[in-house]
Amino acid sequence: MKAIFGIVIFFSATTTLAQIDSTNARPNQLMTPTPASTPSDYRWTIYASGNYHNNSNAVTNHFFKIFEYQRGFIDSETKDETSKRLRNVNRFGADVRTEAYAARKLNNEFTFALGATYRNFTAVRFPADVYELMFRGNKTYAGKTAQLSKLSFTRFHYASFDSYVFKNVKSHLTLGAGLSLIRGGKVRLAKIRSGELFTEETGQYIDLDSDISYSFSPKDTARKNKSNGIGAAIHVFARLNQNNTQISFELRDIGLIRWEKLIQYSGDSAYRYSGLIVNDLFSTTDASLVSDLNVDSIARQLNIHKKETNKLMVIPFSIRLNMIRQLSNKKWMAGIDYLYTAGYLPRVYAGIEYGKSVFFSGKVAYGGFGRIDYELGAGYQKANTFRVSANFIIIEYLLLPKSTSGHGFTLTIEKKI
Q1: Is domain 6-416 classified as CATH 2.60.40?
Q2: How far, in whole angstroms, is CA 286 from its chain's centroid?
Q3: What is the DSSP letter of 334?
Q4: What stretch of H or E contains 74?
Q5: Can you tell me whether residue 374 is helix, strand or coil?
Q6: For residue 12, what pLDDT is reported?
């Protein structure tokens, strides 16, 4: 018999992974526009935005479409698309973020804003061997050792009530700060700090030597939409206007969430396990085998301990430095941003916006969870009182889905009164 990768089945039976949970939407690679753009000539600003992005340096758009959107069968050719792009350490990230606020200009110095935010975030860092084991089984690893170290999986969502205050320190300098009170929803956190999986040459057993930790919200939280987390975060903003140039700095979501009554499985030792015959963990013919597994019995065989615990989690915070140069009816922009989470690389970008009442934009970026992104956008604005825009990362998804990664969109609307 061919022994399956036991710990992967263990994670699958407890989490059902991404393709089973359609409520967990995907990426924010970028920070959304913020109240740092509060008005100087109007008393009120009403603002709303929504964005969805996902990206990877390995997982192709075609693979993700079948796996997540269609929930279809993943054939060998589709698996090969991603296998060809795998590196020693790979990354995937997805973020949905919606927010709305109302800002009130109190006087010539101070502006105050209140709003609300919803965020749904996923970040995965994984070795190449983990992908191959999950989607092809361990047959090709007979007599070999697969590397599992530095696997990290983070998924959570929360809602927050936000407040901001801005002060015009000088005619060309504005500083701001914000505080968010957070209500946590569901969370899943998995980590293999160090790990190796050896498959016996004839497939009779596997040896797993690993330091494993996995925590998740209980099922009643998922079904009843209960909250099992509470937290807070702060934000810092600065904007400098000089001639036709604006330089802005944002530091967002510096905070913690305390998750309560999580179920945690953990273990740090060597295990030997003989399991089921499963060639493809996600194939339609074998899916019923996974659903019939007893998670606790697998945990006991692997010497993994179960307990209820509370956990303090650092929220993935973001940093952005941005510059905009206004020349006639053109805006040139460039900047860098970073998201503090496993697998995210500093992301640099540059772009242009052209037009007045009707405008178009284009941007190219490199880094983040993926590689190169191309973004196109369009919008409409009426004087300084109304603006609506839509931006899409979709060129690669439409034209080269089998050899590229990453797609998403951002929608914003702003009204000044």
Answers
A1: no
A2: 29
A3: E
A4: none
A5: strand
A6: 44
- Mean pLDDT along residues 293-308: 75
Which tops the pLDDT comparison, 276 or 132? 132
Residue 307 contacts residue 299 (beta carbons within 8 Å): no
| 8-state DSSP, 139 | G
Closest CA to 404 of 377, 368, 374: 374
With 60 as the cut, is the pLDDT of residue 162 above it?
yes
The DSSP letter of residue 205 is -
Residues facing residue 321 across a β-bridge: 249, 336
Rounded distance, CA 370 to CA 380, Å?
30
Which helix (H) or strand (E) covers residue 79, if one does?
helix 76-83
Could you give the CA distance from residue 6 to residue 299 in angstroms, rounded to a whole number?
9
Distance from C-alpha of 213 to C-alpha of 194, rounded to nearest angstrom: 11
Q: What's residue 220's pLDDT?
A: 63
- With H, G, I as helix, E, B as strand and everything else as coil, classify residue 136: helix
* pLDDT tier for residue 1 given thresholds of 50, 70 and 90: very low
Strands (E), 77-205: 89-105, 110-127, 145-147, 151-170, 173-199
Condensed to tens digits (0 to 9), the pLDDT of residues 248-296 reads 999 999 999 999 999 999 988 787 877 554 455 444 444 444 444 566 7
Locus of tokens 């089921």? 276
Question: What average pLDDT does the segment 313-333 reach?
Answer: 94
Radius of gyration over alpha carbons of the chain, in Å?
24
Neighbours of 269 (CB within 10 A): 12
pTM, entire model: 0.83
Among 160, 98, 89, 173, smallest CA distance to 369 is for: 89
Mean pLDDT of the chain: 85
Sequence length of the chain is 417
> Is there a contact between 341 and 154 (Cβ–Cβ < 8 Å)?
yes
Residue 7 contacts by C-beta under 8 Å, 6 or more apart in sequence?
148, 192, 197, 208, 210, 212, 302
